[in-house]
């Protein structure tokens, strides 16, 4: 097999970084048609080139050179330029960038598959590329060359070749600085709305100078999203559960609509709107939490959670007395737990902390996933052999410390911060305990959590939680420290 693409990685100059800026577009009905046409062209050429490569692999088409199937970008581009008049006589209606992005997607898909199979690509195993269908693929295309981008003197608009000036909902001249270099512009449709994403090379932001102290974060999925070592508790608004009934009803309604009908189309939009609502609410809260953490603390400790393993379905339990019959395995309860774990979005919180720490100058310490943060006593270091999930209070048998379970775990994560110490770029940074860097934890809490002392945590809520209908303003997060000073 050939077609191994050379790494087309962009090398950012020192002191600069790449940034993505997403804005919602406000196209006119005519422009909507053109956008859909471009996205359709990208999909068409992807599918055509896919068939071409499959025929090469099956030996149905003569391949030049060494006789191996070739999915490299130059080969695909050559093939398309030779056949475009025959396959798509209408090709000139769309920008050539639409076809290029379709071919690029296919070339990447094949090269990722083979790299993943040969162990040259990290991460989860990549599957065999599949054709794109009109109704089950995301309409998108990318401009990398040509006169796309901002328009001088026009604050809220983008220039898209072949489509023209497209109005957008945000002031781009505030988001993109004059010294920034726009490398690419991708357009995609999400929940029936069109978005443009600019890939921008920009100056590294200056580190936040007010960072101080260290914090450990214990992620939860029940009534709270997270607990920090200095007593901050973020309540879980359970966005998915709140809309779940409505969503289920809408999806049930959708299942009864005739395929291809107008009513089905309308119902698809309704379901999509509900899903968009949940996604936006989740994303909003996560951004607020991670921004507050990354711009307040110098050292942040989090656990390296195996979310995929945690949300796995339980194994079926076969009845030993009655083969081919199964015993209850608590699948329903596990499925509920999985949903709430995924609703919080542990992985996304970690991803956002990584890049936000990188820009703010904070150091993120990822604690080994096997470290028993919940079972260890934060007072004397004694490790319990067993601690069931429903035991929400940690009681130490050796020193008598009584603490809420999550707070105890968060304090431990703050204390340990050692194995392995990774910063936001995945490099090992420092060794040793985190605590000497900041104030010692007990001094922040004059009420040392011994028996008899009440646990005082500041519970922050999104305002939308208490008044979902009345309050339209987004909730503001207040850290416990800020509250104390107020
Ligand atoms: Zn103890």
Question: Could you describe the 3D structure shown?
Answer:
The structure is a single chain. The protein is of the alpha+beta class and 486 residues long. The protein has two domains: 16-203, no CATH class; 212-238 and 273-312 and 345-485, no CATH class. Helix content is 37%, strand content 19%. It has helices at 29-57, 73-87, 96-117, 172-175, 239-255, 262-294, 307-310, 331-344, 346-360, 405-416, 441-444, 463-466, 480-485; strands at residues 16-24, 140-143, 149-151, 154-160, 164-167, 181-190, 193-203, 212-219, 224-228, 232-235, 297-303, 317-318, 326-327, 363-367, 393-395, 402-404, 458-460. A hairpin with a 7-residue loop joins strand 12 (317-318) and strand 13 (326-327). Helix 1 (29-57) packs across helix 3 (96-117), helix 5 runs antiparallel to helix 6 and helix 6 (262-294) packs across helix 9 (346-360). It is globular. The relative contact order is 0.10. Residues 418-486 have low confidence and may be disordered. The structure holds zinc ion.
Give the arrangement of secondary structure elements:
Layout: E1 16-24, H1 29-57, H2 73-87, H3 96-117, E2 140-143, E3 149-151, E4 154-160, E5 164-167, H4 172-175, E6 181-190, E7 193-203, E8 212-219, E9 224-228, E10 232-235, H5 239-255, H6 262-294, E11 297-303, H7 307-310, E12 317-318, E13 326-327, H8 331-344, H9 346-360, E14 363-367, E15 393-395, E16 402-404, H10 405-416, H11 441-444, E17 458-460, H12 463-466, H13 480-485
Parallel strand pairs: 8-11, 10-17, 11-14
Antiparallel strand pairs: 1-7, 2-6, 3-4, 4-5, 6-7, 8-9, 9-10, 12-13, 15-16
Bound molecules: zinc ion.
Zinc ion (ZN) binds at residues 377, 379-380, 382, 396, 398-399, 401.
InterPro entries: Cas12f1-like_TNB, RNA-guided_DNA_endo/Transpos, Transposase, Transposase_put_HTH
GO molecular function: DNA binding; metal ion binding
Region (Disordered): 310-332, 428-447, 463-486
């Amino acid at each position: 097999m050939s077609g191994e693409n050379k790494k087309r990685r962009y090398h950012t100059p020192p002191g600069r970084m790449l940034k993505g800026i997403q804005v919602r577009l406000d196209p006119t009905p005519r422009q909507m048609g053109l956008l859909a046409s471009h996205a359709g062209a990208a999909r068409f050429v992807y599918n055509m080139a896919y068939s071409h490569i499959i025929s090469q692999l099956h030996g149905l088409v003569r391949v030049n050179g060494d006789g191996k199937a070739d999915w490299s970008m130059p080969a695909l581009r050559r093939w398309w330029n030779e056949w475009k008049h025959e396959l798509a006589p209408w090709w000139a209606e769309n920008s050539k960038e639409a076809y290029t992005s379709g071919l690029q997607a296919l070339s990447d898909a094949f090269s990722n598959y083979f790299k993943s199979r040969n162990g040259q690509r990290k991460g989860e195993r990549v599957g065999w590329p599949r054709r794109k269908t009109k109704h089950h693929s995301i309409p998108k295309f990318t401009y990398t060359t040509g006169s796309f981008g901002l328009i001088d003197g026009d604050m809220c608009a983008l220039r898209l070749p072949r489509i023209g000036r497209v109005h957008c909902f945000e002031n781009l001249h505030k988001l993109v600085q004059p010294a920034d270099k726009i490398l690419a512009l991708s357009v995609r449709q999400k929940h029936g709305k069109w978005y443009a994403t600019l890939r921008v090379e920009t100056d590294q932001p200056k580190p936040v100078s007010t960072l101080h102290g260290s914090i450990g974060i214990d992620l939860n999925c029940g009534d709270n999203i997270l607990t920090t070592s200095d007593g901050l508790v973020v309540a879980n608004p359970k966005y998915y559960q709140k809309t779940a009934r409505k969503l289920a009803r809408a999806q049930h309604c959708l299942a009864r609509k005739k395929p291809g009908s107008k009513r089905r189309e309308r119902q698809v939009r309704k379901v999509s709107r509900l899903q968009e609502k949940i996604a936006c609410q989740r994303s909003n809260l996560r951004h607020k939490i991670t921004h507050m953490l990354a711009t307040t603390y110098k050292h942040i400790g989090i656990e390296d959670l195996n979310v995929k393993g945690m949300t796995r379905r339980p194994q079926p339990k076969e009845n030993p007395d009655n083969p081919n019959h199964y015993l209850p395995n608590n699948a329903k309860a596990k499925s509920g737990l999985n949903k709430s774990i995924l609703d919080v979005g542990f992985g996304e919180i970690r991803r956002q902390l990584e890049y936000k720490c990188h820009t703010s100058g904070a150091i993120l310490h990822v604690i080994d996933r096997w470290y028993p943060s919940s079972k260890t006593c934060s007072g004397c270091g004694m490790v319990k052999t067993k601690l069931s999930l429903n035991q929400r209070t940690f009681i130490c048998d050796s020193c008598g410390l009584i603490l809420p379970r999550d707070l105890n775990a968060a304090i431990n994560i703050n204390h340990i911060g050692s194995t392995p110490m990774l910063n936001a770029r995945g490099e090992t940074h420092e060794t040793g305990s985190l605590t000497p860097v900041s104030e010692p934890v007990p001094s922040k809490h004059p009420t040392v959590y011994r028996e008899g002392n009440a646990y005082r945590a500041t519970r922050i809520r999104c305002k939308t939680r208490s008044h979902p209908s009345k309050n339209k303003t987004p909730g503001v997060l207040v850290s416990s420290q800020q509250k104390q000073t107020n």
